[in-house]
């Protein structure tokens, strides 16, 4: 029951029986079980003056307790007195006992002083012994840690960083946990991260030195690798050649190198191969890769291998870009290309070595990606720089370097097909440079040629020419010495140079890993370019040169004829080299026939042109007196000189094909006829006398006699004389003065003067009319002259009407 509940109950009780209730309150106060505050409050909170009654009850209760205490004391008083009496008696005995105990204690203390001293010494010794044992135990625990740490310091000093990292792992995992409570251990633990960072920095510094070292030595590494690849290839090729020589088989026909010389060169090649094998070093001999291994192991132990790999690859990519950047003048010398290739080979040889001796530092995918990037750059660089090369020897050396470069990297597993594709582009460039070089060679040959048949005085000279040029002529062989070949000296020289060109072109085709059919096709195409473009151009330029005369042009035509006949021997020559039969379906034919035919046609055209020019030169020497009254009775001097010149020239033409000589002769006569006609009709010529016409007729008669003398055989009948038919009919018309017949038969197919044009006749007649007018003062006294003048005027009118009718009809 709570206090509030008890107070309420108590108040109810006070109301029912106040005396009994006061007794209960006093009992509660004496029991000390309930808080006195609540009990007192219930008394004071009761009816007015209730506390007085309570006080009275309380005093009564106190008086009762005092009586009880007094009774109890009276009951025990005697016992207390007795006890005090006995205690006083004991007091005396206790004092005596105290004196005795004090004396005994003093004597005991005096007797135990030495024991105490010795006991303290023993305790002190035991403590020291315990401390020593503890120290020894702790030292035995700490000494391995200190020894390992000392070992760590020694390894750091000796630059054995990988071992130092392993030692750190042991310290951290095994030793430090045993002594972690000591301060020196904490200092060591705090120092280990710094040591690790120092090791990383040192190893990275070593790696940087290594990267710088291989950058400097990459050209030497590449040179060594390329030498090894070249020697291996040379050995294989030499072995194949030796086997071919042994079994009587020749891959290539080369009449410039005797077989004995080949065998000697093979033996020398094997000896040089053995010597070089002893001298050549490997990449491990040239480069110390330990910094890479060490750094890789260190970063692997440190758990930072990815950082190292990324750094290494990044730096190597930077170096790759530097290596792939060529010098601006690289194309000027082969050494520039060689240095470029050796650096690239050295770079990728190192990468290949790293790929095979480490795990994960570089991967095949990484090297392939790097190689593809490099290959694209290399091809672009070579394509750009090779375009500047004008020396075929330099292009050929570049090709050999590219082949060695490709073979070397192919031996290390890098794909190089694109490089061989590039070589086909460079092959075109090489052919272009060869064509330019041979254009100069051909020009020099043409410049040095005297354009006269080759004279030979003995058998040796004859055989010397035959050995150079495949000439066959039974009639010439039967002739006695001295005799002459029909061609000039340039023909065998050109033939030899074409073969030299084929050899030069063949050099580029070697080592390209192509079949004999492809090589044959390449040789024939390049030879066709030489014939159709270079030689043809040189011939055309030669033919068009001003100083080349008719005799030289005739010899050029003869030369081209023999060169054309020699084309089949060039095809046989290529066939012997490649062992590809000409009957093969896809075999390219040489276009020499068309080339020399075109050149010959150009020369023929030039002969016609120069012959006409020469005729014009003679005609320009003509000095007619167009007003003479009577002819000289003989032909003009210039014309006789011209006819003599034509006779001598046409004698030279006897060596030409018949049609060429006939065409030239006909062209010359026609041009002479046209020139003479133009001379009569020249607008600057105002007057012509009959005497001048008669003199001109004498010259035309000489031309007709020349034409009828058959200066060039093969003309039928008077075909050549027809070249002067226009002049003959015109002169006959004026000489006979047969105008009535001309006017009457004009337009008739059977007309005697069918070739006389009215306009031409009118022009010439007006020139003669002007002459008649000049002499009209005296002629008016002569009846015949007056009649003739009237006739001329009548004919002029009729001719004009014919001309006008022709123009209207047109």
UniProtKB/TrEMBL annotation:
This is Exocyst complex component. Component of the exocyst complex involved in the docking of exocytic vesicles with fusion sites on the plasma membrane. Keywords: Exocytosis, Transport. Pfam families: EXOC6_Sec15_N, Sec15_C. Residues 419-767 form the Exocyst complex subunit EXOC6/Sec15 C-terminal domain. Residues 1-20 are annotated as: Disordered. InterPro entries: EXOC6/Sec15, EXOC6/Sec15_C, EXOC6/Sec15_C_dom1, EXOC6_Sec15_N, EXOC6PINT-1/Sec15/Tip20_C_dom2. Signal peptide: none annotated. The keyword Nucleotide-binding does not apply. It comes from the Eukaryota. Belongs to the SEC15 family. One of its GO terms (biological process) is intracellular protein transport.
């Amino acid at each position: 029951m709570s206090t509030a509940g008890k107070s309420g109950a108590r108040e109810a009780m006070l109301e029912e029986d106040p005396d009994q209730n006061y007794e209960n309150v006093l009992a509660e106060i004496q029991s000390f079980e309930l808080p006195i505050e609540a009990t007192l409050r219930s008394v004071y909170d009761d009816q007015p003056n209730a506390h007085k009654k309570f006080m009275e009850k309380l005093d009564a209760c106190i008086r009762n307790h005092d009586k009880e205490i007094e009774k109890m004391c009276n009951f025990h008083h005697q016992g207390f007195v007795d006890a005090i009496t006995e205690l006083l008696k004991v007091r005396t005995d206790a004092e005596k006992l105290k004196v005795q105990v004090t004396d005994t204690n003093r004597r005991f203390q005096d007797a135990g002083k030495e024991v105490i001293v010795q006991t303290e010494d023993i305790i002190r010794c035991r403590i020291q012994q315990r401390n020593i044992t503890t120290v020894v135990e702790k030292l035995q625990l700490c000494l391995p840690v200190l020894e390992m740490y000392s070992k760590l310091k020694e390894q750091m000093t000796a630059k054995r960083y990988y071992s130092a990292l392993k030692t750190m792992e042991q310290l951290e995992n095994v030793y430090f946990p045993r002594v972690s409570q000591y301060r020196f251990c904490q200092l060591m633990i705090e120092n280990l991260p710094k040591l690790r960072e120092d090791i990383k920095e040192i190893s990275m510094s070593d790696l940087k030195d290594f990267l710088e070292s291989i950058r400097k030595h990459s050209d030497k590494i590449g040179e060594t690798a390329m030498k090894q690849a070249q020697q291996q290839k040379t050995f294989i090729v030499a072995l194949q050649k030796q086997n071919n020589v042994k079994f009587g088989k020749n891959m290539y026909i080369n009449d410039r190198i005797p077989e004995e010389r080949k065998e000697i060169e093979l033996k020398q090649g094997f000896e040089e191969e053995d010597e070089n094998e002893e001298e050549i070093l490997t990449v491990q001999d040239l480069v110390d890769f330990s910094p890479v291994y060490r750094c890789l192991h260190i970063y692997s132990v440190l758990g930072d291998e990815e950082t190292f790999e990324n750094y290494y690859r990044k730096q190597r990519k930077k170096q790759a870009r530097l290596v792939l950047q060529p010098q601006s003048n690289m194309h000027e010398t082969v050494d520039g290309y060689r240095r470029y290739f050796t650096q690239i080979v050295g770079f990728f040889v190192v990468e290949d070595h790293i790929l095979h001796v480490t795990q994960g530092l570089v991967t095949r995918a990484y090297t392939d990606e790097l190689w593809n990037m490099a290959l694209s750059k290399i091809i672009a660089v070579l394509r750009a720089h090779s375009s500047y090369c004008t020396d075929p020897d330099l292009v050929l050396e570049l090709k050999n370097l590219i082949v060695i470069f490709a073979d070397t990297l192919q031996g290390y597993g890098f794909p190089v097909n694109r490089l061989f594709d590039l070589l086909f582009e460079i092959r075109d460039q090489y052919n272009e440079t060869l064509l330019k070089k041979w254009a100069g060679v051909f020009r020099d040959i043409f410049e040095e040629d005297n354009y006269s048949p080759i004279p030979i005085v003995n058998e040796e000279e004859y055989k010397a020419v035959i050995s150079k040029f495949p000439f066959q002529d039974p009639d010439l062989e039967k002739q006695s010495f001295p005799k002459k070949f029909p061609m000039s000296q340039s023909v065998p020289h050109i033939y030899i140079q074409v073969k030299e060109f084929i050899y030069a072109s063949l050099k580029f085709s070697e080592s390209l890993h192509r079949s004999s059919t492809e090589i044959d096709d390449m040789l024939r195409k390049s030879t066709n370019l030489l014939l159709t473009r270079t030689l043809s151009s040189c011939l055309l330029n030669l033919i068009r040169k001003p100083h080349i005369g008719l005799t030289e042009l005739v010899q050029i035509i003869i030369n081209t004829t023999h060169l054309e006949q020699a084309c089949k021997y060039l095809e046989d020559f290529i066939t012997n080299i490649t062992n590809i039969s000409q009957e093969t379906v896809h075999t390219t034919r040489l276009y020499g026939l068309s080339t020399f035919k075109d050149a010959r046609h150009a020369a023929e055209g030039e002969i016609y042109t120069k012959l006409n020019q020469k005729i014009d030169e003679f005609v320009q020497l003509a000095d007619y007196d167009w007003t003479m009254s009577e002819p000289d009775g003989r032909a003009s001097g210039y014309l006789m000189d011209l006819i003599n010149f034509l006779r001598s020239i046409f004698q030279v033409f006897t060596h030409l094909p018949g049609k060429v000589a006939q065409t030239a002769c006909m062209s010359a006569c026609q041009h002479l006829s046209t020139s003479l006609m133009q001379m009569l009709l020249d607008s600057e010529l105002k007057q012509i006398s009959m005497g001048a016409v008669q003199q001109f007729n004498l010259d035309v008669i000489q031309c007709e006699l020349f034409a009828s003398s058959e200066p060039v055989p093969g003309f039928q009948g008077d075909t050549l004389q027809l070249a002067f038919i226009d002049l003959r009919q015109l002169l006959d018309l004026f000489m006979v003065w047969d105008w009535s017949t001309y006017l009457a038969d004009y337009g008739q197919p059977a007309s005697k003067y069918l070739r006389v044009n009215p306009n031409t006749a009118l022009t010439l007649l007006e020139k003669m009319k002007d002459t008649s007018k000049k002499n009209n003062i005296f002629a008016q006294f002569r009846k015949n002259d007056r009649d003739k003048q009237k006739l001329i005027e009548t004919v002029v009118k009729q001719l004009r009407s014919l001309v006008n009718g022709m123009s209207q009809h047109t």
